[in-house]
Amino acid sequence: MKSRVLIVDDDSITRQLFRFVLERDGYEVAEAESGEQILARTINFKPDLILLDVMMPRVSGLDVCRQLKKDSRTQHVPVIIISAYTNAVTRAEGLLAGAIDFMNKPCSPSQLLEKIRAVTPATRHVE
Q1: Considering the entire predicted model, what is its pTM?
Q2: Taking phi first (over 0 means left), then psi (-120 to 50 degrees means alpha), and beta for anything else, what does residue 20 get?
Q3: Over the range 6-32, which residues count as b (16 or more CB within 10 Å of their CB) and which as e?
Q4: What is the average pLDDT across 1-30?
Q5: Structural domains of the chain, ranges and CATH numbers in brackets
Q6: β-bridge mates for residue 104, sequence order
């Protein structure tokens, strides 16, 4: 069974790029373009991992991460924050919000896959 990754980013180009890289590597992928969509998508899609952008309209990725970690239905899902804002404060806020890791954007496909492979269950990942 394929590991599932939910990509949350308001930028469609970023979502398409991440989807291409992940699907090529055997992941099942779903997308959300806003913080408002993520709770329903997480409950319905049941991802093994969420890739979450920080800067999104209306609800920031940091607030979304906090909400996910407070909800008993989603708190177990690991979150990796991906952001162009790479300062130490943003990185620390992401980890304090409940993310397990933080990646700088842009990133190479190999960097993305390395982080994801470290988190997703080996028994579900298809090589």
Answers
A1: 0.91
A2: alpha
A3: bbbbbeeebbebbbebbeebebbbbbb
A4: 93
A5: 4-114 (3.40.50.2300)
A6: 83
Helix (H) or strand (E) holding 8: strand 4-8
What are the C-alpha distances in Å from 76 to residues 44, 49, 50, 101, 107? 15, 10, 11, 14, 26
Three-state DSSP at 113 gives helix
Any idea which residue has 């909400």 for tokens?
A: 67
Dump pLDDT digits (tens) for 46-97: 999 999 999 888 889 999 999 999 999 999 999 999 988 878 888 899 999 9
Residue 46 backbone zone (phi > 0: left; psi -120 to 50: alpha; other: beta): left
Buried b (16+ CB within 10 A) or exposed e, 43-79: eebebbbbbbbbebeeebbbebbbbbeeeeebeebbb
Tokens of 57: 């309209």
State CA 114 to chain mean position distance: 14
